[in-house]
Design brief:
Length: 530
């Protein structure tokens, strides 16, 4: 629950995303155009990408039987067998609207048919109302407005306001979801100001993290927040020194190394809460149907700090991100009228390191990372509010079980920070309560004109931080091999991905005397960039 406190500010994504914190790039689009002739009319610029993915997932339940709660480790086909398959698509469009002059711009991101499954919603965009019981991938909504924000260039810095993407460093905590295989991405409603001072960018941001419940006004055109004290807001300050990709390339061509770094501190508070607003209830309430009995004292506060560092040389790159988060909830109960006499606390740490060395047209490196763990059963990757405490042997579940256990110490990497294709990406859902090593290599097989054929491969070795979190109580999570064959040309990319997970003893089932067996994934990706 602490990972949303690392804040970033947006930049329009034209190609592969850079890991420079977005707070350091606020206003870069306006500043780059401030030295050319002022515009005499509104300028519109459009960039984006279209992707199609088709995949097959084989034996992701690892053939190790059910957990103590009677569930498989991963969804299995309804009619038996081991293979699940399907495909999805998405058109992403980033639009910049620059006003006459040189100092005002508005940006927006629109996703069309975002992650809609093949055949799941063939009537999307026809105007038919969504079915209330529609499952994910089948909803007929065709266009999703992900971001809308504006920037104003002033003599002392840049002011930005609106709903904007959030990304910091490598993206283990706040991730904008800009990579070609990302599925989500963070966005937040915020106001921020950034200014260049002494060769650095200094930024301050205020984020409205959550508000509501709401009730309609008398004209039913605008909602009204029923209780101001249940709003959760965040303040963030950051100091950064970063360079653009073109600047790094120029320095590398001159034989120079480039060091970049950034630090941030963030604090979030929430005084009261209305859990009936967001918890599932037997009878849904109409808008505004809440009263004073639904209001609960929460007393939530959290402080997060992080750093990012990158050293680039003409032939090598070392990059890291570290995040520490500490939080306290004075009243963790979610049931009005039922109070707990112990606060819940959280103490989390995450670290990721990436390295690469260029060998002519080829490259190799070793990545590593750690996400702190919690000694409660299960990984705690995606706990559901109000769910029962997990039993030893379960894969997931809440990490706090008051009054005996009131701590949640497992750090969760953002799901769009991908290090593999099966174990963390699918079975667990994200990197948490784990340590991993990831050696990788990229081989350039051929280059003809604008087209390039390459082979990449990675091996991911991983262990649990807390053995009590795994299904069997062992720490070894396994070894995964992820090769890819890709062809890239101007504006086009096609890739064939494969993955095999050789599960470690952590996924064996001693109660049923079953050893976990290998899982496989095959994925075809098509991408077009404009």
């Amino acid at each position: 629950m602490l990972l949303g406190f690392a804040l970033g500010l947006p930049s329009i994504a034209h190609a592969e995303p850079d890991s420079v914190p977005d707070l350091a790039e606020i206003g870069s689009d306006l500043a780059a155009r401030a030295f050319v002739a002022p515009r005499t009319r509104t300028e519109v610029e459009v960039h984006g990408s279209f992707r199609i993915r088709q995949e097959a997932l084989v034996n992701l339940d690892l053939d190790r039987g059910l957990d103590p709660s009677g569930q498989p480790l991963f969804t299995v086909p309804l009619g038996g067998g081991q293979t699940l398959d399907g495909g999805d698509l998405r058109l992403r469009t980033d639009i910049a609207l620059r006003a006459p002059g040189a100092g005002v711009a508005v940006y927006t991101r629109l996703d069309v048919l975002d992650n809609v499954m093949w055949g799941g919603s063939p009537e999307a965009g026809t105007g038919r109302a969504p079915t209330p019981a529609a499952s994910p991938g089948q909803e007929p909504g065709s266009i999703s407005v992900e971001r809308v924000w504006g920037e104003v260039l002033t003599p002392v810095g840049v002011l930005a306001a609106g709903r904007m993407g959030a990304h910091w460093g490598l993206g283990i905590a706040a991730n904008g979801g800009d990579c070609d295989d990302c599925d989500g991405g963070d966005a937040a409603d915020r106001i921020a100001f950034a200014s260049p001072i002494g060769g650095h960018v200094v930024a301050l941001a205020w984020d409205m993290a959550s508000s509501g419940p709401f009730t309609p006004r008398k004209d039913e055109r605008r909602p009204l927040d029923l209780e101001p004290t249940d709003d959760a807001s965040t303040w963030t300050a950051a100091v950064m020194r970063a360079r653009s990709p073109s600047a790094r390339n120029r320095r590398a061509a001159a034989g120079l190394a480039t060091a970049e770094y950034a630090v941030f501190a963030s604090h979030r508070r929430q005084e009261n809460d209305v859990p009936a607003h967001y918890l599932p209830v037997a009878t849904p309430r109409p808008p505004g149907a809440f009263d004073a009995t639904d209001l609960m004292a929460r007393g939530f506060s959290a402080t997060t700090g992080g750093l990012w560092f990158r050293l680039s040389t003409p032939r090598a790159r070392v990059e890291l991100e570290a995040v520490y988060a500490r939080a306290r909830v004075d009243q963790p109960s979610l049931v009005p009228g039922v109070l707990l006499d112990q606060p819940a606390t959280s103490d989390q740490f995450g670290l990721a390191v990436e390295t690469s060395v260029s060998l002519g047209a080829h490259a190799l490196g070793v990545d590593a990372g750690v996400a702190s763990g919690d000694d409660a059963p299960g990984f705690g990757a995606f706990p559901r509010p109000g769910a029962a405490a997990p039993q030893p042997g379960d894969l997931d579940g809440p990490q706090a079980d008051p009054p005996g256990d009131t701590t949640v110490d497992n750090f969760r990497f953002h799901p769009d920070y991908r290090i593999d294709r099966i174990l963390f990406a699918e079975i667990i859902g994200t990197v948490t309560d784990a340590i991993y090593l990831r050696p990788h290599v990229r081989l350039s097989l051929s280059e003809t004109g604008p087209g390039r054929l390459s082979l990449t491969a990675a091996a991911i070795l991983s262990w649990a931080v807390q053995a009590t979190s795994t299904p069997s109580g062992a720490r070894a999570l396994g070894v995964e091999l992820d090769p890819s064959l890709a062809y890239e040309a101007d504006g086009f990319r096609v890739a064939l991905d494969y993955a095999v997970l050789l599960p470690g003893a952590a996924f064996d089932n001693p109660a049923s005397s079953l050893d976990a067996t290998a899982a496989h994934l095959v994925r075809l990706r098509l991408g077009m960039v404009f």
